Amino acid sequence: MNNKKLITSLGLALLISTPAVADLYITEQIPASQDNTLIENPDGARSDGTGPYFRVGLTGGNLGGGIRRGLVHFDLEGVIPPEARIEDVALHLYLARGEVEKVSVRLYRAVRDWGEGASCSSGGKGAPAQTGDATWLHTFYDISFWDEAGGDRARPASAREFVGMPDSYTWSSNRMKRDVQLWVEQPAENFGWLVIGDERTPNSAVAFGSREAAQCDTTPTGIPGPMLEVTYSVPE
To answer: 194 near 110, Cβ under 8 Å?
Structure first.
């Protein structure tokens, strides 16, 4: 074999034997840092910042009627690096209470900052709003307001899932991936998701476990709170 052929053969052998540099894939499970229930109320006086559930949908007369919407936020800073590329996103919520067989629950990216105050209720009527609570009218009770009563959101919905019997349910979509990518690259835009259920059918409201595991800090529920599962890649 001449020198030229030898060099070529050695080069091919090196290419075959040298492993390609691959991206590193990592999955993180991130618990909610805040959640709350927006309770339809003409003066924005009720909330449920630290209760054991957040509710979505239309309640019946036993709860005073009116719409309930949930808010949930996850702190990604220090968990996912800013150079990460989001590969997959899944939001896990545990349905604790429901009054209908199956309802649609949608996620919308919230576009205004909001608060979780000290209001606490184990029932669907909520409790008097406390300083810093998000309410139907307020982002932070009682000093700042939503532009749109019931929460400011980006449209269309980021994801939709149907829920029925008490169980764990998962929301996942490409639009959710884009939401999380935005939050990683621009943390100041991370206001979480607004969770909206069936707002046309009375008694369609359902309750998901919140990040607080006790009913007004007295009775543990054992129900898991919101969990965000994020798979991302970074250069090796």
So the answer is: yes
Distance of CA 82 to CAs 86, 90, 163, 172, 233, Å? 10, 19, 33, 21, 11
Domain boundaries, the chain: 23-234
- pLDDT tens per residue, range 196-225: 999 999 889 999 999 987 777 677 778 999
Mean pLDDT of the chain: 89
Token output for 56:
């979505």
Degrees, nearest 5: CA angle 110-135-115? 60
DSSP string for residues in 105-168: EEEEEB-S-----S---SSTT-EE--TT---SSEEETTTEE-SSTT--B-SS-SEEEEE-SSEE
For residue 165, give Cα distances in angstroms to 119, 157, 200. Answer: 28, 23, 20
Taken in order 114, 120, 123, 125, the sign of the CA dihedral is negative
Query: Which tokens in the block code for residue 223?
Result: 């129900």
Tokens found for residue 222? 């054992």
Cα 82 → chain centroid:
19
Q: Cα dist. 142→51, 124, 204 in Å? A: 19, 21, 29
Q: Which residue has the tokens 């980006």?
A: 154
Determine the Cα–Cα distance for residues 151 and 55; give it in Å rounded to an integer: 14
